[in-house]
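Q&A log
Question type: sequence-to-structure
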Amino acid sequence: MTLVREAVPLPFPGRLQENGYVSFRVAGVWLALPVARVQEVLGARTLTPVPLATPFLAGLLNLRGEIVSVIDLRHRLGLPPRDGGRASFHVVVRDGDELFALQVDEVGDVVEATAEEIDEAPSTLPETLRRCAPRVIRREGGLLLAALVDELLSPCDAGC
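Response status: OK
Response body:
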């Protein structure tokens, strides 16, 4: 996968808008979101902590004057915490009138996937991962978990 080093404006026109997925890695797990749901990708940013916030809220960031809630996907998906010294990336998604940034470890390629390349996620995935990413995209280098933005942003159950 090619790693993004700086902000990339999205979405892309044409076929990628309909069949494209932005890939990213969280704790060694490769996931993907539909290009149509991704506004842009950002490099490391300074976050403002939010006292007494839900544990998966990593903080807030200022994106061109708009306050954006940053979701720690490691915590949200029940994955191990990030090493303190590692920089993170942010995949910015819009939900209605509000922006959210999904904190990820790496951002990869924008990939195109046909319906034939998408299958149900295996039942062996942990429940939280399977609920947030119910499908997989078959790629030459392995599988991408096709995540649902709405599930990633939804309130967590007791385990989150």
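Response note: The first helix runs from residue 15 to 19.
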